[in-house]
Write a structure and sequence with these properties.
By secondary structure, the chain is α/β, with parallel strands linked by helices. It has one domain: NAD(P)-binding Rossmann-like Domain (Rossmann fold), CATH 3.40.50. It is 38% helix and 19% strand. It is built from 11 helices and 12 strands. The strands form 3 sheets. The protein has a 7-stranded parallel β-sheet, sandwiched between helices. Strands 7-9-11 form a 3-stranded mixed β-sheet. The radius of gyration is 19 Å and the shape is globular. The termini are far apart.
């Protein structure tokens, strides 16, 4: 590689993407180009633009607003060393019904166009952000060899994109690495995600809206742990062609999470059950042995600490006074 690495991050204004750009820019040998089209309907554009505030003043960061279906790869991918592909249409529940067309367009078609561009311009590594949703319902700890049986159209589109990455790796030698994220949380988390929603409802002294009975459990991954692993995957040796789980330090049920929030807020929340869990597994649990071995990954932030950081963020975001 040249002394300066040119790195592309798609979905740069998003939750994980914006933090990843900041992490990459900690190395002064990196120039980062962030791409985002602000298509995520679950996050207002003003929040996504706010996510970019720390980046826009950095002379080694360039932001390009554009849809991956139409952006000029001859400009963006020319001399690019590494591409982190985090852009896409998120959300499990909203992937059912007529909005599915947006998932096929932005998760599958856009990924295929990016793969073609990376192939054409000789990108040295492509990191694809996938999800634990591709595993479906599993018991116990899950490693990367587990059968993939998604429960939602969203999961299907992410698994399809994984298969596309594999096709370009096998047929064209495109240097692809697949990263499967497990319930990433923390400051800048999307407003539709449970922790963000719970915290805002508690700040407003409203009932927490709960899907299911709260016994469903998740492997929660704090954002700073996640982005350190993702950044490392761009440079780690001998991982091209691999699929790697990125999980967290602590698993918990949703009820246990609500109890932690009650401790942090120092009041008991009221709960309103608004429906059953739909399109989601009852449990996720990442085996991160591979990430530890290949990336030196060791998640550090416990759930209570991470929730406190997210509470402070939500307060600032919406202008709550302490």
């Amino acid at each position: 590689m040249r002394s300066m690495a040119k790195i592309i991050v798609t979905g740069a204004a998003g939750f994980i993407g914006s933090y990843l750009c900041e992490e990459l820019l900690q190395n002064h040998q990196h120039d980062v180009v962030g791409i985002d089209a602000f298509i995520d309907l679950s996050t207002p554009t003003w929040i996504r633009k706010r996510n970019l505030h720390r980046l826009l003043g950095n002379p080694r960061f360039t932001f390009y607003e554009g849809n991956l279906l139409h952006v000029p790869w001859d400009i963006l991918l020319k001399e690019a060393d590494i591409v982190y592909h985090l852009a896409g249409m998120p959300g499990v529940r909203s992937s059912f019904g007529p909005d599915f067309v947006h998932y096929t367009t932005h998760n599958i078609t856009a990924t295929q166009r990016l793969l073609e561009g990376c192939k054409q311009y000789g990108v040295k590594r492509l990191l694809f952000a996938s999800t634990s949703s591709i595993y479906g319902e599993k018991n116990g700890k899950v490693d990367e060899s587990a059968a993939t049986l998604p429960l939602s159209p969203y999961g299907i589109t992410k698994l399809t994109s994984e298969h596309l990455c594999r096709v370009y790796y096998e047929n064209d030698g495109l240097p692809v690495v697949i990263l499967r994220f497990f319930t990433v949380y923390g400051p800048r988390q999307r407003p539709d995600m449970a922790f963000h929603r719970f915290i805002k409802q508690m700040l407003d002294r409203e009932a927490i809206t709960l899907y299911g009975d709260g016994t469903q459990s998740r492997d929660f991954t704090y954002i700073s742990d996640c982005v350190r692993a993702v950044a490392a995957a761009g440079f780690a040796a001998e991982i091209v062609g691999e699929t790697i789980n990125i999980g967290g330090k602590e698993r918990a049920s949703i009820n246990e999470c609500i109890t932690l929030l009650e401790q942090l807020f120092q009041y008991k929340a009221s709960i309103k059950v608004v429906g059953d869990i739909y399109g989601e597994p009852t449990s996720t649990w990442a085996d991160i042995t591979k990430a530890t071995r290949m990336l030196g990954y060791s998640p550090a932030v416990d759930l209570k600490t991470g929730l406190q950081f997210e509470i402070e963020y939500v307060k600032q975001l919406y202008g709550y006074v302490n």
